[in-house]
Design goal:
Layout lengths: L3 H14 L2 H12 L4 H13 L3 E4 L6 H10 L1 E2 L2 E5 L6 H5 E6 L4 E6 L6 E5 L6 H13 L1 E4 L2 E4 L5 E6 L12 H4 L4 E4 L5 H13 L10 E2 H13 L4 H15 L13 E3 L3 H17 L7 H12 L4 E2 L1 H5 L4 H11 L4
Parallel strand pairs: 1-9, 1-10, 2-11, 3-6, 6-9
Antiparallel strand pairs: 4-5, 7-8, 12-13
Helix pairs in contact: 2-4, 3-4, 3-11, 10-11, 11-12, 12-14
Length: about 325
């Protein structure tokens, strides 16, 4: 059990160690107007060693935000435009026969980078997604009979367009579950859009954020995030939320039983706890409060709840279910 003195010392440490969050935000503001919600979630994934899926209509600065975040760190960045004719070798690389040496050598693909932007990820078929799966989960790539570790940190930031369904492939459930967060983006408000117009018509090119961090800084920050204190009552709260997606009838929501096909896996519980710690960290706090868990719940759970045909027929979304779960589950 942590004492009040330990918590105070931890708070001071987090306050000091999280100072770079303000620097990242300042640099990101040079290129991105608004979309604070998306930027916070991207930083949470960066600090939690997770991957993020951004969903929104074209023109909401998804790609620009990812490139801008990568620009603030001295790290390798790759952009992959997913298309129906993409092959696994286009991602991971391939073996090339060298005639002079009479041997095969490995040419590594663009996946060997710290930041990988998978643009319109749902446009590529299953065989490409399966190549990405190993990289996302195991942080390694197998080419022929050789396995290569990926650089640290390794972060997949994927975008998908929810409007067009022609020429797209639904992502396999196993892969969707590998994304720590799925963030659904909305339009900017009127004031933000006015500033966006001004920025784009007054400048010939959008300012590029300066590099302010190294990959070692990120790896060190990840260790500090794991030190953020989480009380046993908060752990129980997380477990109750995830279990309510599996057995809603045990939490006074029997009407959801026929609407949920499957609930969050243990990976949902792990990611909810990690994301809550990272959320507390970016709020410059050394301990997790219930509001941290509630703030991040939708992004962690919205893609991990499988709905039945009945739910779709009644126009009930996973977000409706999460809202009711957060209202019903007792807050510590």
């Amino acid at each position: 059990m942590e004492t009040a003195t330990d918590i105070r010392a931890l708070n001071e440490k987090i306050e000091k160690e999280s100072a770079f969050i303000d620097l990242i935000n300042r640099e990101m503001d040079k290129a991105i107007i608004g979309q604070k919600y998306m930027i916070d979630r991207m930083i949470i994934c960066l600090l939690s060693n997770g991957h993020i899926l951004l969903e929104g209509v074209p023109g909401l600065a998804k790609t620009l935000a990812i490139k801008s975040l990568a620009s603030t760190i001295h790290a390798d960045f790759s952009r992959l435009q997913f298309t129906p004719d993409l092959l696994p070798a286009d991602l991971i690389g391939t073996q090339i026969y060298q005639v002079k040496k009479d041997e095969f050598t490995v040419r590594k693909g663009p996946l060997f980078a710290n930041f990988v932007l998978a643009d319109e990820i749902n446009r590529a078929p299953a065989k490409v997604q399966s190549a990405l799966l190993e990289a996302m989960q195991e942080k390694q790539v197998t080419i022929g009979d050789e396995t290569f570790p990926l650089p640290k940190p390794f972060l997949v930031l994927a975008t998908q367009n929810p409007v067009e369904q022609e020429g797209t492939y639904p992502l396999p459930e196993a892969q969707v579950d590998r994304f720590m967060l799925k963030v659904v983006l909305g339009y900017p408000n009127k004031e933000e859009e006015k500033l966006i117009i001004r920025q784009n018509i007054s400048q010939t090119e959008i300012p590029t954020p300066q590099k302010i961090l190294s990959t070692d800084d990120i790896l060190k920050a990840r260790q500090v995030v794991r030190e953020v204190y989480m009380d046993e009552k908060i752990e129980q709260y997380i477990i109750d939320i995830v279990f309510a997606t599996r057995n809603p009838e045990n939490y006074g929501m029997a009407h959801f039983k026929d609407l949920i096909n499957f609930g969050g896996s243990p990976r949902a519980s792990i990611n909810l706890a990690l994301a809550a710690k990272a959320y507390a960290f970016i709020k410059r706090r050394g301990y997790v409060i219930p509001e941290d868990v509630r703030a991040i719940s939708k992004d962690v759970l919205r893609h991990r709840i499988g709905l039945t045909y009945e739910a779709e027929a009644e126009n009930i979304t996973s977000e409706n279910i999460i809202d009711e779960i957060l209202n019903k589950v007792e807050v510590p």
